[in-house]
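Handout, page 2. Input:
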Amino acid sequence: MNLLRFSLLFFSTLLLFSCSKNLNDDTVFTYNDKIVNIEDFEFFQTSTFDDFYFKGVITDSLYVINNFMADDEGIILIEYGDSAYYNPVTIAQTAFKFLNSFTITHDSVYLDLAKLYAQKLIDISIEDSDAILFPYGFNFPLHRYYEVLEADWYSGMSQGQALSLFSKLFILTNDSVYFDHAQKTYNSFYLEINNNSDPWVAVVDSNNYLWIEEYPTLDPNYTLNGFLFAIVGVYDWCKISPQNNNFDMLSALVTTAKYNIERFRVVGDLSVYCLKHQVQSSGYHRIHKEQIDWLYLVTNDEKFLELSTLFSIDN
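Output:
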């Protein structure tokens, strides 16, 4: 793809997205027959260089190519116990590194690598109704000892990052395969908590806030970074499918963030990773801060600026 085509695709998306918003201040969002909390937000398009996943270096891509275990196609494998597995989040995040490198160099080799990784997500996905999900084929001890998620399990974080990846690739290639898989990935956010073995990634809490769960357990964890990554995915989806109901989903999720992020705050200390276990991490505190800054960037809502300041003061 030449630079001119890339620029035209980007700026057409910029124009379309900037003009799209919820229609009024009395927005009501019905989620699976439930009325959930929602505020009306106007969402602003970021530039390529302000994209949440953009990093202005190609070092990450080169490091991936040269330093990780991979299958015969060159797809990263991660060791858990005595075996190696595909990790959907790792696959998506590696593809973002390749897209960064493509943006910087315009070398189609990097775009082809991102497409290869996206195809692996498609290959490992399972379909449920009109949704696709990306299974984790290994048992995962959350926080190493609190509780174990048993294979196959699904994550709202990987659903959000796959949604971002498919949406970005559709903008770059105009290939309907990516739009179709973005649509089906987005549909997974309507798979709500249940008491049987059916996959789910979403929950409406007792205060009528809609969450996307990184670790879907029947006693929800409410993990902040995974939830906010899911919001990024819905934001990216709205770029290629700017329908009012999609923006309503985005607004409902951002409303949850606006009124719940402060629950993760520990005054004068590191924020907690999830509400259930209250584990603290300097690395995730930094990620939380970056995500809050991004929420302010795309909404201009002063609450997120206030939250960013508070999290910065804390640590």
